[in-house]
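Working notes for the structural subgroup meeting. M.R. asked for a predicted model of this chain before we commit to crystallization trials. I am recording the input and output together here so anyone reviewing the notebook later can reproduce the run.

Input as submitted:
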Amino acid sequence: MLTRLDDYLVHQTSDTVDHVATGDRNFYDRYYFNAHTLDGGVFLVVAMGMYPNIGVIDAFVTCVLDGSTQYIVRASRALGSERMDTSAGPIRVEVLEGLRRLRVVVAPNEHDIACDMTFEGVTFPYEEPHFFRRSGNRTVMDYTRLTQNGRWSGALTVAGRRFDVEPSTWWGARDHSWGIRGVGGPEPPSAPPPDGGPVGFFWVWTPVQFDDACFMYTCSETADGTRWHAASELLFPYGQERPPEQLTVVAHDIVLRPGTRTFERGTLTVARRDGTQALVRMTPRTTLHMAGAGYSYSGGWRHGQYQGPLVVEGEAWDLRDRALLQRVQGQSETICDYTVEGIDGLGTGHGIIEFLLLGAYEPYGFRQWSDVAPA
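Returned structure, recorded in token form:
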């Protein structure tokens, strides 16, 4: 079907823009943003995804206040054909200047979160190495992601508290990814892949800002600790005219909260071009559970699922409730202070570590899905 975007020189196939090049139901196109005060007292995550072959666009906004309560608004609607309508219920995203400035709006609603905030990148986005992975003969990951650190301005209201968002004290990051990876509800069972072995997925992703530089680290491993995707880079702000310094992922040492698989603290090790190593130390401040942003792996509302023509919901989680934490644990994001030994002049940085560990992971002694860190 013809839509407004078809008048732009953007086509990648012979069809109209509302048709993608693959019929794989898992094709997606997705925004993610985080914003936080430097002290970690307010931590906001917004995500929006479009799923052309499922016919859905959905969005989530979730915010942790003072480390004790996580507020959530989620919205989903039927996608239709118009790709320039990047809104779902009260949540919308606008590109003000490609690769540099984006606006996130959550219109006032009954679920305790509203905002009108603008993100401005401090460096050119980092294009992560392409993700590609097969399970047996089937391609299960084939996607691209850009990541960008930035500063925020605007206003945020959560649970009746208004926050003036200023670039000097509100930092954050965003990503935009598109391609194929698992989304939506479960698929019909298939035969186990011929390579066999335990199933496991280890993931670390951490965009960090310092006053005069940004640091990026990402690492994905299989159940036996084999690293199949990894990248790290030191980037410098617009105007410095300094090329990025490519780093090499060497190691990670993550400590989990007892009785869980949730990040507690840790270090990352990278190597510089000359072979010298740098140690990145992460000191935690506030944790947000990404099940509230659609990354739910044990039931509940998950991104890419059809909920109806338009559905908007909200809830609040008491993060002191141990039973709730057991239910929502899985993918988490933790605001940390970052210090680096081995790269001079960076000072203290601020950012998040996104952490996910599913199934078996032999380096931590996890052999089955129910294994957790010892109490």
